[in-house]
Amino acid sequence: MSEDPIEAALSRLARDCRSLEEFKARVIASYGQAQLNHALSIAKHLGRFESMSTVQGTASSGENQSPSAISQEGVAVQIRSFFLGATKIAVAIVVSFVVLAALAFGVWKVFDAQRIKEEESQAVLREWTSQTKSFLGFDVSAKTKWLDSRVYVSVHLSDAPHYMVDAPLREENLGRGIFVQFTDADGFKVFEHLVKLSDLSRNVDNEGKAIGFETQFDEFMPIDAYKRVQGFTVRWNLITKMSQPAPEPREPPRPEQAGADHCAPGLTRAERLKRLSRFGQVRETGLGEYSAGARSVTFLSTGELLNCR
């Protein structure tokens, strides 16, 4: 004889439920109040929910409960089930977030380690020189290093020429100086800095005589730009010597100052040209016509004087 389907379903439900309240609520929700006593009997027969006395007590209590009270108990069970499911979802979300955060932290640590290694390689001191002594009277050397997105530069001048230490040229050069320029492998400028004479500190010997200059500076620079630096050059706008004043214009010498009048009568062609040369370089400006400065003579083809001034 086959088992009643409802009885079989109630038996499975009794085995699946963890508490009597859950069992009663699910029976009422699925099969109605009429099946509750039958379901409790099945649960009692299966030995579910702790002990027989508990089942009996609960059954009698269930018999005395009103349908509305039992419905409220079912709703409470459903609410507890909802919050239990929501809690599980929340826990899963938190765990996922923690896992993602751990992965992100691991990736960041890897990149940060690579960044630190790259920055440490650029913190090594690099030295540069430029041979400018034949032009300026001193050679220029520099030392550089990169740290925390800034390039630090130390500049040294090997000598102290007079135009940088003696008046009046020193005063003329205080706002001038040298341009230290750092270039890439192809000679293109990466960055440049003007080192003014007023920025330089003087190095002196035991007798207090200037023997050179030096200074330091720093400025912002991305590490990629500093890695491109491969060369070092120097430009300048210093005045290295005093300019000479232009000579005052002089009037051409008068004939008596030149020695003799080139227009005097009875002179030969050669003598007139010789006397004309006292006024400057003699140039032939036309046929038989010669001039020097503002003076000139004109001869006929026979060598005789045609005109003189």
TrEMBL record:
<feature type="region of interest" description="Disordered">
    <location>
        <begin position="243"/>
        <end position="264"/>
    </location>
</feature>
<keyword id="KW-1133">Transmembrane helix</keyword>
<keyword id="KW-0812">Transmembrane</keyword>
<feature type="transmembrane region" description="Helical">
    <location>
        <begin position="89"/>
        <end position="111"/>
    </location>
</feature>
<keyword id="KW-0472">Membrane</keyword>
<protein>
    <recommendedName>
        <fullName>Transmembrane protein</fullName>
    </recommendedName>
</protein>
